[in-house]
Write a structure and sequence with these properties.
Elements: H1 3-17, H2 25-38, H3 53-65, H4 70-101, H5 105-115, H6 118-125, H7 131-139, H8 142-178
């Protein structure tokens, strides 16, 4: 049997079985996850969170108002900082997956090809205004990816950060209450 007849036979079987040849939602999800997995890790370590002025003042006030519990107060605030860092670190992969889901299969496949090819390293080494850089950028849907990131950031990042910070504040309040620290 020739390859052509095999392909036609496979197409007929798909039609008879009622199965679509196009990628389904599970396939798109797998493709989105694959894309996120090939993205390069950031070279820069995120700066650790620090207490803002209001939090530092609250910590100082609680230490003063709760003699003998300074270590418990400081430990609760240290955990508050760790909570912020953990939530921030978890937010990026979730954000990238949401962005990937907004791209088409074709765009994801092209971006996967880009990030796993020598073109990525080459583009990273070039001046973004050079003709070679512009040609590489035109070959892949990098502009569409950047637009999707901007749209996601505009719609969700502030909400996501606020929700994470509120959860960390609630954890702090609970930790303080468990140690008997009074406001």
């Amino acid at each position: 049997m020739s390859l052509g007849k095999s392909l036609i036979g496979a197409a007929v079987l798909f039609c008879l079985a009622g199965t679509s040849v196009a990628a389904g939602p599970e396939d798109h999800e797998a493709l989105a996850r694959r894309f996120v997995s090939v993205l390069p890790a950031s070279d820069e370590a995120a700066e650790p969170t620090r207490l803002d002025e209001g939090q530092a003042q609250r910590q100082a006030d609680l230490v003063k108002a709760n003699p003998g519990k300074a270590d418990a107060v400081r430990a609760a605030f240290a955990r508050r900082i760790a909570c912020s860092d953990e939530k921030r670190d978890a937010m990026l992969p979730a954000m990238m997956l949401a962005i990937a889901r907004s791209l088409s299969d074709e765009q994801l496949q092209s971006l996967i090809a880009f990030y796993t090819s020598p073109d990525f390293a080459r583009l990273s080494a070039l001046d973004g205004e050079s003709a070679e850089a512009k040609a590489l950028m035109a070959r892949y849907p990098l502009e569409k990816f950047a637009e999707a990131m901007k749209a996601y950031a505009t719609a969700h990042v502030i909400e996501d950060v606020m929700a994470a910070e509120q959860a960390c504040d609630a954890e702090l309040d609970e930790a303080l209450a468990k140690t008997g620290v009074r406001p």
